[in-house]
Design goal:
Blueprint (H helix, E strand, L loop, with lengths): L1 E9 L4 E2 L8 E2 L11 H17 L4 E4 L1 H6 L9 E4 L18 H18 L5 E2 L8 H8 L5 E2 L3 E2 L6 E2 L5 E2 L2 E5 L5 E3 L3 H4 L5 H9 L5 E7 L5 E2 L3 E2 L2 H20 L2 E3 L5
Parallel strand pairs: 1-4, 1-13, 1-16, 4-5, 6-7, 7-10, 8-11
Antiparallel strand pairs: 2-3, 9-10, 11-12, 14-15
Helix pairs in contact: 1-7, 3-4, 6-7
Bound molecules: zinc ion.
C-alpha cells in the first residue's frame, strides 16, 4: 500500500502577496484587498463533510491568523501543521521584503503559537506560496518541527531528508498525457482547467511510497478567476475532489496523515 497524504492549506481567501508588506491580502472583488476569511470558513465545512463521509484523515496547514478567525475545533481529529501567521512570503521573493532573522523568528513563532492555542501544537510546516529557503527551514526546525512540505519534486521522489535534518514531503509535479506540466495542487481543477483523471494519472505515474495531494479550503467555494461559486458549482467542485480521492484510494493507496 502506498500513502495518499491529502494536505489542505487553511488560509485567507484567494491570498495574494502585497508589495512591501509581510501581511498578505485577499483578491480585490471591488472592496479592496484586505484579508477575507469567509470562503476559507465555508469551504472548510464543505471539505470536512466530504472527508468525514469518506473516512479520510487529512493534514491541515493552518495559517495563524485564520485560526483566530475560523472555528478550527472542527479539524482536531486531523494532522495539524502551520502556515505562517499572516501568510507572509518568508523569503521576500514576491514582496521584495525579506524578513530579518529576528522578524522571521517572530513571524514563525507567532503563527506556531496561534495554531497551538486555537487548534493543537503543529507537527509540520508548509511555507506560504511554497516560498522557502535554508534559513526559513532552520527557523522552522528551531520550533521543534521535523516535517516539511514546501517543495515540488518529480512524482517518483517521495519523502527525503533535508540538509538540516528535517524530512521533506514534496508536492509531486510531473507531466500529463499531453506533456503539459501538472502539479498535485488541485488549483486548476477548482478553476475548471483540469479534470479529476489528470490527478489520478499523476498519482499512478510513479511507485514512490507516498503521494502528497494539496488544496485550499477557500477553493471549495470560490474560484480565483470566477469568484464565489453558486450552490451547483460547489456541489460539482466537491464531486470532482471526491472522485480524485476515491480513485487514487481505489488504485492502491491508503489515506494517511503526514505525521503519524
Ligand atoms: Zn497558503
Amino acid at each position: 500500500m502506498r500513502d495518499l497524504i491529502f494536505t489542505v492549506d487553511l488560509d485567507r481567501d484567494v491570498n495574494l502577496p502585497r508589495g512591501g508588506e509581510f501581511e498578505a491580502g485577499s483578491i480585490d472583488r471591488g472592496s479592496g484587498d484586505s484579508p477575507r476569511f469567509s470562503s476559507a470558513d465555508r469551504g472548510l465545512s464543505v471539505l470536512l463533510d466530504l472527508l468525514d463521509d469518506m473516512g479520510v484523515t487529512a493534514t491541515f496547514f493552518v495559517e495563524g491568523r485564520t485560526s483566530e478567525v475560523v472555528d478550527c475545533s472542527r479539524i482536531s481529529g486531523h494532522c495539524i501543521g502551520f502556515h505562517g501567521y499572516d501568510h507572509e512570503d518568508l523569503t521576500g521573493a514576491s514582496t521584495g521584503l525579506r524578513p530579518t532573522d529576528g522578524q522571521l523568528e517572530g513571524i514563525l513563532r507567532t503563527g506556531f503559537e496561534a495554531v497551538s492555542d486555537n487548534v493543537s501544537r503543529p507537527v509540520c510546516f508548509r511555507a506560504p506560496y511554497m516560498s522557502v529557503d535554508g534559513r526559513v527551514l532552520d527557523a522552522v526546525s528551531s520550533l521543534g518541527i521535523v516535517h516539511d512540505s514546501s517543495f515540488y519534486a518529480g512524482p517518483e521522489v517521495g519523502a527525503y531528508p533535508l540538509p538540516n535534518g528535517m524530512v521533506e514531503h514534496p508536492v509531486p509535479k510531473g507531466a500529463d498525457r499531453g506533456g503539459r506540466t501538472i502539479a498535485a495542487y488541485l488549483w486548476p481543477l477548482h478553476e475548471g482547467r483540469r479534470v479529476p483523471q489528470d490527478y489520478i494519472d499523476l498519482a499512478m505515474s510513479s511507485d514512490a511510497d507516498e503521494f502528497v495531494l494539496a488544496t485550499h479550503t477557500w477553493h471549495m467555494v470560490e474560484g480565483r478567476d470566477t469568484g464565489p461559486m453558486g450552490r451547483s458549482e460547489i456541489e460539482s467542485n466537491a464531486d470532482s475532489v471526491r472522485r480524485v480521492l476515491e480513485e487514487i484510494l481505489d488504485g492502491g493507496f491508503r489515506a494517511t496523515a503526514l505525521v503519524r
